[in-house]
Specification:
Layout (H helix, E strand, L loop, with lengths): L8 E4 L2 E2 L3 E7 L3 E6 L7 E8 L4 E7 L8 H10 L2 E7 L8 E11 L13 E8 L4 E4 L2
Antiparallel strand pairs: 1-2, 1-7, 3-6, 4-5, 6-9, 7-8, 8-9, 8-10
Length: 138
């Protein structure tokens, strides 16, 4: 059994996702705008607009009994539907920071076969439709 490498908790709606080993909210990357004056070294002058969406990457121990967490994400992935995701980097405790929003599941782990081929860990990737809303757990 893997051990959690951080205290982050992730929710689908009001249900905590079981077996989270690690989770990270990744902001979109912005391209550097470079100026090339004649005969001079290129200089970074600004950052362009973000070309990607905010992503939430969740490493999990697969739990086929987590009907309102992992299985809900699997269903959303299969149906190309959205979920309401909540990311709590320091845990879902009063006063802690929260990031919530609507997201598509763009990657879900496979459970593999039986015995040696069985997969026990995997990764979900959620892409938010807009920047997640920052808040504090009440």
């Amino acid at each position: 059994m893997a051990t959690s490498t951080n205290t982050a908790e992730v929710y689908v709606g009001s249900n905590e996702i079981a077996g989270v080993v690690d989770a990270a909210l990744i902001p979109p990357q912005r391209q550097t705008i470079v100026s090339h004056p004649l005969g001079a070294e290129p200089q970074a002058i600004d950052l362009g607009t973000a070309e990607e969406l905010w992503r939430l990457e969740i490493d999990v121990e697969i739990d086929k009994t987590d009907t309102n967490g992992q299985l809900a994400l699997n269903t959303a992935y299969e149906n190309a539907s959205t979920v309401t995701a909540g990311y709590y980097p320091e845990g879902h405790t009063t006063g802690n920071e929260s990031q919530t929003g609507t997201a598509y599941v763009t990657q879900a782990p496979t459970s593999g076969g039986q015995g040696r081929n069985q997969v026990n860990e995997g990764k979900y990737i959620l892409e938010f439709t807009t920047r997640p809303t920052e808040g504090v757990v009440a």
